[in-house]
Amino acid sequence: AAMSRKGRKLLVDSLTRSAKHFTKSEVECLIKLFDTLVAKASSQFAGAGFDRTVFRDTLYNAFGMTDDVVLDRVFSTFDRDNTGCITVEEWVEGLAVLLRGTLEEKMKYCFTIYDLNGDGYISKEEMFQMLKHSLLIQPADEEPDEGVKDLVEIALKKMASTYLFIPFLLQDYDHDGKLSFTDFEKAVRDENLLLEAFGPCLPDIK
């Protein structure tokens, strides 16, 4: 829907405050892009936003993100109210984390992507699902799933290595085979490369 000049200014000011990592002119550009994407979307959202298909196409074209499972999870992370529609607020604030987020913000974002069922833990099964779709499997591989399982075990050991000095925590951890956000955060702070340990869900630096 068309917005008055005053309404647009208020929106820009509000999003510049809430998105934090963008300047006012950048927010204005992102709102214009949002309007273009809404025009491409189906009319079911009455101009309020755009759907999963437009979102996925945009991330593919802009950042080369191709993994279907990851793209669906990124969409769910942006779509905070779970309506199936990305609003302008969700668009700008989501991109602020995706493109300019602090390490803390990106850790929370990546953890949410990997926590497929939203229970606050990344289980072995969730690691397997993410890695299964993000690895390049050769046609000649007889048991590709076994290779993924091995990789999950390696990742778990690496994530848990932070706790080697607290044996009882490591013991409990090994029993449930899950990573809490605290586990994930400590491992990533120790080795930043573990941020996307279970699949690429952030654009590369380019």
TrEMBL record:
<feature type="domain" description="EF-hand">
    <location>
        <begin position="66"/>
        <end position="101"/>
    </location>
</feature>
<dbReference type="Pfam" id="PF13499">
    <property type="entry name" value="EF-hand_7"/>
</dbReference>
<feature type="domain" description="EF-hand">
    <location>
        <begin position="102"/>
        <end position="137"/>
    </location>
</feature>
<dbReference type="InterPro" id="IPR011992">
    <property type="entry name" value="EF-hand-dom_pair"/>
</dbReference>
<dbReference type="InterPro" id="IPR018247">
    <property type="entry name" value="EF_Hand_1_Ca_BS"/>
</dbReference>
<dbReference type="GO" id="GO:0005509">
    <property type="term" value="F:calcium ion binding"/>
</dbReference>
<dbReference type="InterPro" id="IPR002048">
    <property type="entry name" value="EF_hand_dom"/>
</dbReference>
<keyword id="KW-0677">Repeat</keyword>
<keyword id="KW-0479">Metal-binding</keyword>
<dbReference type="InterPro" id="IPR028846">
    <property type="entry name" value="Recoverin"/>
</dbReference>
<keyword id="KW-0106">Calcium</keyword>
<protein>
    <submittedName>
        <fullName>EFCB1 protein</fullName>
    </submittedName>
</protein>
